[in-house]
Amino acid sequence: MRPILALLAAAALCSGCVHKYNLNSVSRTGVLRTNAVALIALPADGHFEQINYPDSGRKAALAVSAAFARHLQRVDTTPEVVPFAAQLEQARAAKSDYLIVPTVVHWEDRATEWSGRSDRIEIEIRTVDAPSGETLALGSVQGKSKWATFGGDVPEELLAAPLNAYAGWLFSPEGTPAPLPSEEPRRQDAKSPKSGQ
């Protein structure tokens, strides 16, 4: 009986050793074009309960920009937080094909190494056809940090994996299923040769 309990305890510990990701309510009306230019709107900073996280909006915009830059000809970012109508004006003035509007829904930075409470993040991404103002895609990416940590983790580190999966899906052929919830690659996967992208 003891070996079984030991195995269950080890499995529980290992489940806390990886970051977890999820994509929610993803939808699109078609496939995005790679020969296009996008403007990423700077979102307002995130907060959790009464805690505000200064500069979190810029960090979210940079993460979104990095994910979409892998697929587009050029990606620019707005310099300040402005209403949607102004974002759309800026995108049209810059002759952008797409306006990508991230919103920080949840930003929670915890001292996980001593509290055992995970960092959590959720970013909603709306992709708009800049000339028409029509919404082409809408999705929400979430991340939850591992609780077995020695410190130094920050919420923005949870964005790259789900954002890359989501952005890649927006440019994939019709009928491609949306990415499923996942965990970070194991250490040996990180050392494997890169695929030819």
Task: Walk me through this protein's architecture.
This protein is α+β, with helices and mostly antiparallel strands and 197 residues long. The chain has a single domain, classed as Rossmann fold. 29% of the residues lie in helices and 27% in strands. Mean pLDDT is 79; it is low at 1-17, 111-116, 148-152 and 185-197.
Structure in a nutshell:
This protein is α+β, with helices and mostly antiparallel strands and 197 residues long.
- By CATH, the superfamily comes out as Anticodon-binding domain
Fold-level CATH name? Rossmann fold
User: Quick check: average pLDDT?
Assistant: 79
Structural class: alpha+beta
Percent strand equals: 25-35%
First-last Cα distance: 49 Å
| Unreliably modeled segments | 1-17, 111-116, 148-152, 185-197
State the main characteristics.
Rossmann fold, disordered N terminus, single chain, two-stranded antiparallel sheet, 197 residues, alpha+beta, disordered C terminus
